[in-house]
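Hi everyone,

Forwarding the result from last night's run.
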Amino acid sequence: MTASALRSLVARAATAFAAAAMLMLCAAPAAFAQGLIRDAEIEDTLRAYTNPLLEAAGLNPNDVDIYIVNDPSINAFVSGGQNIFVHTGLILAADEPNELIGVLAHETGHISGGHLARSREAMNRSMTPMLISIGLGVLAIAAGAPDAGAALISGSQAFGMANFVQHTQAQESAADQAAVEYLEATGQSGRGLISFFNENIRPYEFMVRRAPPWMMTHPFSSDRVESLRRRVEGGAHLGATDSPENIRRFQFMQAKLVGFIQSQGQTLARYPVSDRSAPARYARAVAYYRVSDLPRARAELESLIAEEPGNPYYQELMGQILFENGRAEESIAYHQRSIELAPGQPLLEINLARALNAARGRSGAGEAVALLQRAVAREPDNAFAWRELAQSRDLLGEEALAQLASAEQNFAMGDYAAAVSFAERARRTLPRNTPSFQRANDIVLFAGNEMRERAARENGRRGLSITH
């Protein structure tokens, strides 16, 4: 084997390990392909469940973001710092609020334990045994034992991963125990976490046990359950039950998700017309709306509003149904009422602004601008809000500010070339020494730097491919 071939083999082995390790760290975010769901009511429910846990962990809830991933798999994960991602499949698989809250407590344990940063450190440390194995393989080949050398090099990934999974398994166990601690601190039982593992994860353990040990990033679910059981059964709140409010929130969250992400047939199978409960009517209202059956959607929702006129999310849904059926002016009153009942929610403010733009054009754009400015102040990365703000500014004839809002929209989306283009056009006519002019300058600077760094990374990758 030539020196060039040896270098190539070493590079491939190192790349394989790094790719495998990063897959373990970042496989979950691939669910983004399914898309994120934004819904004020569901986000509010997840916040109500999670904030007490974060506070029990000594974390500031305002520093933690929660995202809903439209994916049927049963999963939740922490990524990108203090961000919790919850799959719709997990929400729908839970039988009671305590099960979902138990999983959220586990993810809180990962954040509190700083596990993402420590996983990166562990991955770097795990490179050492892999490189030793590669080095020994190279020496064996050089000494005239090519088969032994090839075996050492091909097995180097297993050496590195075996060290890494020991770390991740310890993290999962630590997060489990932290979850019980946070549940106890908030007066909740850990039984839901145990039942969720037993019903949704443990049945598949026989498949997991067939995997090579060095691929086992999590402890066996049976071991996790037994470890949790000992801790939970000794807790002071073993017999605690879900509060009526948590149960109500849970039922409406599941009903709304079923109506939006499942077919009408599936929704009616779960919530038949004979079921006159409020969650069932809610689910059917959404399902009818999605197939453009406006009369039945309105009938179900009007019955709910009559029973609970102070529910902001009934008002929001009626506004959405009317708006998307070409009745923007009629939807405005419902959107206004939703904000009166739940002030300060950006998604509700965006809904009203959108309706004002569509129904009243220039005469409604001024109010829309005020609403959208409040929304982007709370959610500066909300590209949809920036797009609506650009439209409102354009309706008012404020071309430079409309271009600046479009720059913000593209910056939030990661389209830095478009962001620079819009920002440069905006700053040509914006008055100098104003916050808007300075913001346009900042976007040109930051987005331009990001474009150059991306180009440098791309050139680096091309250089590597040519070299090897």
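The chain is about 75% helix and 5% strand.

Cheers,
N.
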